From TrEMBL:
Belongs to the DXR family. Its EC number is 1.1.1.267. This is 1-deoxy-D-xylulose 5-phosphate reductoisomerase. One of its GO terms (molecular function) is manganese ion binding. Residues 5-133 form the 1-deoxy-D-xylulose 5-phosphate reductoisomerase N-terminal domain. The gene is dxr. It catalyses: 2-C-methyl-D-erythritol 4-phosphate + NADP(+) = 1-deoxy-D-xylulose 5-phosphate + NADPH + H(+). Pathway: Isoprenoid biosynthesis; isopentenyl diphosphate biosynthesis via DXP pathway; isopentenyl diphosphate from 1-deoxy-D-xylulose 5-phosphate: step 1/6. Catalyzes the NADPH-dependent rearrangement and reduction of 1-deoxy-D-xylulose-5-phosphate (DXP) to 2-C-methyl-D-erythritol 4-phosphate (MEP). One of its GO terms (biological process) is isopentenyl diphosphate biosynthetic process, methylerythritol 4-phosphate pathway involved in terpenoid biosynthetic process. SUPFAM superfamilies: 1-deoxy-D-xylulose-5-phosphate reductoisomerase, C-terminal domain, Glyceraldehyde-3-phosphate dehydrogenase-like, C-terminal domain, NAD(P)-binding Rossmann-fold domains. It comes from Candidatus Kinetoplastidibacterium stringomonadis TCC290E.
């Protein structure tokens, strides 16, 4: 096995972990290219270490900074600028595998292009499926792209469905499945009362008990909308109806998800809570490879706890289920309003409990409009843009 990889979003937590895992493949994976938005120092260090051929940066200022920071005697890589270059590189035939790790809707155009190019896509970007799941999966099937999710829950489901086979027929699996159980740690506020959430600070919301993540996704985990997004992703990834997807709070984060089959059998994926395992699995698939994460010691676990989610205390979770039932446009509104609200909360412009209210108000606003047709990326981005405009206005009311 030899793969040539381009990492879109190499300086984020997923990109860094992917490079760390690639080191364990001992030359079987070549890093062809990298992209970053802001951490140019880190990008330069990565480009030097992996001797990449291409990097993509956001603007001319970032390109000039990259040149300034490049002190290595080796030839400097080709430096491309802007979001259009990300799309161009997604189509490039010089490599075979994309790690789609750009955070937010900014990662969607390049991921869609990679699907149209028939690439092997290791998907970490949630928004691609939340905002454009129908269109993205059409491209995956039409252009015969190979799709492997690398967030822990969906990678766990993939493993439970796939076993040791070489792939999944996503269009046929529903008939053999009774339900999919998405596990969730419950976040930092599982034990909080409803009233105490009024005074949550950004610092508290970003203190996840199990995972070390960026500010935005940490807040999403704390409100549990992140798990709601994962329900939407599960629907599109595995062609599973909403009624067959359930959430189970599992504080130990050892079982990353489970699949219950129609005969009563349940297959679960267990491992340490470390992103290295799903990334390693996806990079090597269908061959499992060693990594440095380590193994579960069942004698230390003592017990595994499970609880039903509290939809009253975490209304964002209900909003996500509702959006999926209402349709793709509502999922776009859900995601856009959430991004605006979380940003406002992190900048201390709104209360923590206002996040769900802004999302709910945005969905109600869209309900009053003539339904949008979503036939292409431009349609999706237009609805995303006007939703953000509306959500920003009510953030300041």
């Amino acid at each position: 096995m030899f793969r040539r990889v381009f990492i879109f979003g190499s300086t984020g937590s997923i990109g860094k972990k992917a490079l760390e895992i690639i080191d364990t493949f001992h030359g079987d994976i070549e890093v062809f290219g990298l992209s970053a938005y802001s951490s140019i120092d880190c990008l330069v260090a990565q480009a030097i270490k992996y001797r990449v051929k291409v990097v993509v940066v956001p603007n001319l200022e970032a390109k000039e900074l990259f040149h300034k920071k490049w002190t290595n005697k080796n030839l400097i890589p080709k430096i491309l600028i802007g979001s259009e270059s990300l799309v161009d590189m997604a189509y490039d035939s010089s490599y075979d595998t994309v790690i789609a790790a750009i955070v937010g809707i900014a990662g969607m155009p390049s991921a869609l292009a990679a699907a149209k190019a028939g690439k092997r896509i290791l998907l970490a970007n949630k928004e691609v499926l939340v905002v454009a799941g129908d269109l993205f999966m059409q491209y995956v099937f039409t252009f015969k792209a190979e799709l492997i999710p690398i967030d822990s829950e969906h990678n766990a489901i993939f493993q439970c469905l796939c076993g040791n086979e070489n792939g999944i027929d996503f269009k046929k699996i529903e008939n053999s499945i009774n339900r999919i159980l998405l596990t969730a740690s419950g976040g930092p506020f599982r034990g909080y009362s409803l009233d105490s959430l009024q005074n949550v600070t950004p610092e508290k919301a970003c203190s996840h008990p199990r995972w070390n993540m960026g500010p935005k996704i940490s807040v999403d985990s704390s409100t549990m909308i992140n798990k709601g997004f994962e329900v939407i992703e599960t629907h599109w990834l595995f062609n599973i109806p909403t009624r067959k997807i359930e959430i189970l709070i599992h504080p130990q984060s050892v079982i990353h998800s489970m699949v219950e089959y129609i005969d009563g059998s349940i297959i679960a994926q267990l491992s340490k809570p470390d992103m290295g395992i799903p990334i390693s699995y996806a990079l090597g698939f269908p061959i499992r490879t060693k990594n440095k994460v380590g193994f579960v010691d069942f004698t230390e676990l003592r017990k595994l706890d499970f609880y039903q989610p509290d939809f009253i205390k975490f209304p964002c979770l209900s909003l996500a289920f509702d959006a999926l039932k209402l349709g793709q446009a509502h999922c776009i509104v859900l995601n856009a309003a959430n991004e605006v609200a979380v940003d406002a909360f992190l900048n201390e412009n709104i209360r923590y409990t206002s996040i769900s209210r802004i999302i709910d108000a945005s969905i109600n606003w869209y309900e009053q409009k003539i339904p949008y047709s979503l036939n292409n990326l431009d349609d999706i981005l237009h609805l995303d843009r006007i939703t953000r405009d509306f959500a920003r206005k009510i953030c300041h009311v």
